[in-house]
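Intended use. Records like the one below are meant for learning the mapping from a protein sequence to its folded structure. Do not use them to infer anything beyond what is encoded.
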Amino acid sequence: MPLDQIDVDKLGAGKKTEEGKEMSFLEHLEELRWHILRALVAIMLGGVVLFIFYPWYFEHILLGPKNPDFISYKWFCRLADVTGFKALCFSPPEFQSIATGLAETFILSLKMAFIGGLVISFPYVFWEVWSFIRPGLYPQERSVTRYVVFICSILFLMGVCFGYFIIAPFAINFLVTYTIPGVTNMPTIQSLINYMIMFTLPAGMIFELPIVVFFLSKLGVVTAKGMKQYRRHSIVGILVLAAIVTPPDVITQMLIAIPLYVLYEISIYIAKRGEQLYKKGLQED
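Structure written out for the chain above:
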């Protein structure tokens, strides 16, 4: 059978050309290529802007949490005044970052411009991906996932902001002040930026949990009953994660753990909705 007559699966299937004919396999690949190219152009445009203004980008965004006047520290101090938990009011220690490689700062600027461009253009990038997938869905699935681009974009940006404004200040304060006798803690700029990536991008992906649970429950892979059954295990996992990224203080650990647990509970509710759609689909079949 010729390659362009191979029946593709549901991902992108069901699309038609302008003449109303079913698209071939090679036509699917061509359309996917254009979606990817447009997404890359959006990322590159955002990256070029950030690279042009890299001094501001590094000082006020990437290295913002190491500055004492960072807005999160003001929020934490106000919260400490309201709640009476003085441990919430703190400021980052003064420390210098160094570059050990000849081209380290230049390569790092290019790398972070690309990553920043991805974060900025994420809604458009996801829209391009979804534009390729959506025509292959059934009408019922299209109606259910009508606002998926908006919801996924909001959740991702919320997760990045959560990691940037909440996790990063606590983590930087703890990691920099944790020292070994006789050793001066002077992190490289590469190390500091890598940790900033670790604090933010994974948090953005974690906040996509409700969407992932919805699709898995709609496929019958995940159930609300199962998530309730493993609720205690999830609580332990969340507390361990909060303990890793925060100082050894119960209050600050709970400040991280509570939003993550709320996200898990929301996912249980979403799983119920997905199960209903899954059972409805089985009855229609």
